[in-house]
């Protein structure tokens, strides 16, 4: 997924969080899932969310998103904290030692907000299996996202099954309801717009582009979208900085904030790291996991590398060839590819980097390594 799939206006949307302009203390957050060692992309997210908050004199919190109990491990969360501290990214609140910042310990809170949505008549049970979903949903035209077809959404003509554990859907097919249901929320058929601080306005018609989405899984645990919205609101997060693979869920989350009576945080998404062939870098690229990176670099070099990757330093001292300027266009991506010195990054400290941080310097296009 690239941000090009989304309508946005290119430009600079400000380094000051709108909340800060209202005189509210800025609070950023890093919210990783402890399912393995962090890789360069994760640490770039942490770095930029930290800088964005700290450059405004704000606070930075660490939340452990361990809802997926099958894949999350405490030792991964410990390692992740140790990797952040190695780099000097110290959080002001949260972390593994505070259960209230671990999603796996917050089930009752999510349940409460799930029931508030049910009371508004916005939720319904969904019994679709994965196979049902693939059969009934058309991949979204622009980004391959699967839009839920609304199969289980209550409608007129609802006929309960004879044995009381199923019903006949509007298309006449019988829905088996004997297994546990997930809970979906009914989304409105209207455009929801957020103004991303890096990518600008992002609009989405939730009914058309997203469909009714799951807020609670069939096993009773909260789904990611609900947990993230409830946590950001209750933890007082004023700005969400994360990879632009999540840009499309920002309108969805902003709407959920509004529906729950919360004020949505500001969003700032960052470009993804890609290999030369355009493939997104991920946990499988072992050479870029923190274990390998820590063997290769000192913390100061690692900070210098991150500052280069995010465009914060790109002076003539590190540029090569006949570079012609600072255009935020596709040319910039190819320039960056040449100038990022993975072998010998400069030493930098956070104290040096915080004052030079600006979203306007961060590229919009994927960063090619
Ligand atoms: Zn369904």
Quick structural gist:
The chain is an alpha/beta fold and 369 residues long. It contains twelve helices and 15 strands.
The radius of gyration is 22 Å
CATH class of the largest domain: Alpha Beta
At the fold tier of CATH, the topology name of the largest domain is Rossmann fold
- Average pLDDT number: 84
> What ligands does this structure carry?
zinc ion
Shape: globular
Unreliable stretches: 1-11, 315-331, 333-338
Query: What is the number of independent domains?
Result: 2
Number of strands: 15
Helix and strand element order:
HEHEHEHEHEEEEEEHEHEHEEHHHHE
Strand order of the largest sheet: 1-2-3
Number of helical runs? Answer: 12
Strand composition percent = 15-25%
Overall CATH architecture of the largest domain? 3-Layer(aba) Sandwich
Give the biggest beta sheet.
3 strands, parallel
Termini separation: 17 Å
State the share of residues found in helices, binned by percent: 25-40%
Based on secondary structure, the structural category is: alpha/beta
CATH superfamily of the largest domain, by name, is HUPs
């Amino acid at each position: 997924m690239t941000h090009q799939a989304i309508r946005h206006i290119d430009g600079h949307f400000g380094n000051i969080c709108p909340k800060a302009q209202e005189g509210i203390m800025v609070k950023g957050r890093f919210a990783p899932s402890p399912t393995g060692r962090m890789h360069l992309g994760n640490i770039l997210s942490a770095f930029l969310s930290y800088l964005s908050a700290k450059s405004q004199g704000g606070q930075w919190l660490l939340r452990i998103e361990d809802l997926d109990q099958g894949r999350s491990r405490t030792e991964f969360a410990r390692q992740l904290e140790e990797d952040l501290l190695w780099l000097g990214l110290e959080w002001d609140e949260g972390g593994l030692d505070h259960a209230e910042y671990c999603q796996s310990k917050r089930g009752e809170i999510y349940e409460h907000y799930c029931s508030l949505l049910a009371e508004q008549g916005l939720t319904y049970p969904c019994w679709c299996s994965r196979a049902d979903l693939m059969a009934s949903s058309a991949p979204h035209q622009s980004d391959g996202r699967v839009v839920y077809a609304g199969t289980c959404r209550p409608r007129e003509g609802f006929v309960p099954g004879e044995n009381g554990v199923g019903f006949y859907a509007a298309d006449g097919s019988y829905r088996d309801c004997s297994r546990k249901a997930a809970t979906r929320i009914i989304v409105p058929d209207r455009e929801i717009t957020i103004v991303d601080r890096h990518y600008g306005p992002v609009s989405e018609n939730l009914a058309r582009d997203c469909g009714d989405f799951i807020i609670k899984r069939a096993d009773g645990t909260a789904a990611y979208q609900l947990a993230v919205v409830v946590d950001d609101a209750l933890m007082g997060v004023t700005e969400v900085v994360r990879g632009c693979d999540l840009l499309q869920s920002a309108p969805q989350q902003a709407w959920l904030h509004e529906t729950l009576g919360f004020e949505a945080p500001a969003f700032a998404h960052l470009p993804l790291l890609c290999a030369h062939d355009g493939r997104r870098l991920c946990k499988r690229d072992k050479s870029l996991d923190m274990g390998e990176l820590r063997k290769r670099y000192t913390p100061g070099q690692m900070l210098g590398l991150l500052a280069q990757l995010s465009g914060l330093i790109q002076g003539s001292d590190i540029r090569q060839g006949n570079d012609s300027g600072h255009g935020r266009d596709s040319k910039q991506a190819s320039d960056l590819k040449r100038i990022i010195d993975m072998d010998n990054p400069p030493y930098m400290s956070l104290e040096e980097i915080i004052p030079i941080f600006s979203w306007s310097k961060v590229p919009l296009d994927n960063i090619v390594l």
